[in-house]
Amino acid sequence: MQNRIDEFLDARSPILAAISDDTVPMETISRDFLRFGKRFRARFCYWGWQSVQGVDDPGDFFGDTSRRDLPAVVGAAAALELFHAAALVHDDLIDKSDTRRGAPSAHRRFEREHRDRRFVGDATRFGDSSAILLGDLLLVWSDELFAESIDRLADPDNARAARAEFNRMRTDVTAGQYLDIVAEASWPHVPEARSIDTAVNVITYKSAKYSIEAPLAIGASLGGASLAQMAALREFGLPLGVAFQLRDDLLGVFGDSEVTGKPAGDDLVEGKRTVLIAMTRDAVPASARNTIDELLGDPELTGEQVQMLQETIRASGAIDQVERMITDNVERALDALDSAPLTADSRDALSRLAESISVRTA
Questions:
Q1: What does the alpha-carbon distance between residue 56 and residue 197 come to, in Å, rounded to a whole number?
Q2: I need a labelling partner for 173 at 20 to 30 A (CA). Which of 21, 163, 215, 269 fits?
Q3: Rounded to an integer, what distance in angstroms lies between the CA atom of residue 75 and that of residue 298?
Q4: CATH class of the domain whose range is 156-362
Q5: What pTM did the predictor assign?
Q6: C-alpha distances in Å from residue 280, one per residue of 112, 256, 313
Q7: What is the dihedral of CA 194, 199, 204, 208, to 10 degrees?
Q8: How many Å apart are CA 88 and CA 94, to the nearest integer?
C-alpha cells in the first residue's frame, strides 16, 4: 500500500512544482505524515472487502495478486490513509499539539519554515494557516485517490455503495470533531449525570465509527456485501472502535512518550473531556473535582501538576472502569464476529486485529 501512496504523491508532485518552488514543504510534510502509522484503517478496509469475497488465498495485502479488484481495494485503503493524515494535521492544530509520532506536528514544522527562511510577520500564524491548507490539500487528494480507485471496480453498484460509505464517514468524523471542541467548551453546562454519555457520544463519532466501522463498511461495499454481512461487520466494528478510542484516552494520560510520540499527560494539557475524565470527576469529592476543572486544559501545566492529576485519576478507580469498558466492548465485538456470515480467514484476521487494538501501547 505504501507503494500506492507514493505513486499517487509522485503524480501530484509535478503539479505542485509547476505552481511554485515554495510548495515544496507541502509535499515534504505530506510524504512524512504518510510514511508512518499503524495502518489500522487501511487494514480494516482490506479485511472488510476480503470478509465478503470468499477467496481461499487472498495473498499478502501489501503484495501483488492477480485478483481483479485488488488494485481498487488497495487504492481505497490508501485514500483512507490520506484522509487520516488530513485529520491528524487539523486535529493537532485544534489541540495545539507540538508533536506527532515523536516529530514536530505540521503547524510547528511550517512555523519553523517561517523562521528558517526569515519571513516577516507572525511565525505561529503562518504555521497555523499553512497547516489548515495542508490538511485541506490532503482531504482533496484523498477524495481524488478514492474516486480513481473505485472507478477501477468491476461492479459500478459496489463503487456507488463504497462512495456512499466514504461520504458518510467524512460527515461523521467532522461532526464528531466539532462535538469534541463543544465538549471542551461547554462542560460547565452539562449535567453531571450526562457527562459520561456525552463523552461516549464524542468518541463514537470522532473516532469509533471513523477508525474501524467505516473502513470495514467501505471495504465490504467494495466487495458487494449483503445486508447481513454489512450488519455483522458494523456490530463488530462499532464496539471495537469504542475500545480503540478508550485505549487512546488512557495512553493520552499515562502512555510512555518514547512509545506514543506524545508528551506524557498530553490530553491533560489539551483539556480533553474524555470518558476517563468524566468517570474520574464522577468518583472524586467536590474539592478534587474543582482541582481537576481548574487544571485541566492549562497549557502551562507543570510536570508536578500533571503527576498530581494522574494520581487523582488512579485513586478514583476510573482506570479500572475504563479497562472494563474496553474489555466489554472487545467481547461484544468478538461475539458479533463469531456468528458473522463472513469468510473464516477474515474472522481470524479481524479477531487478531481486535486483540492488537485492545492491548496496544501506542
A1: 43
A2: 269
A3: 41
A4: mainly alpha
A5: 0.92
A6: 38, 21, 6
A7: -150
A8: 10
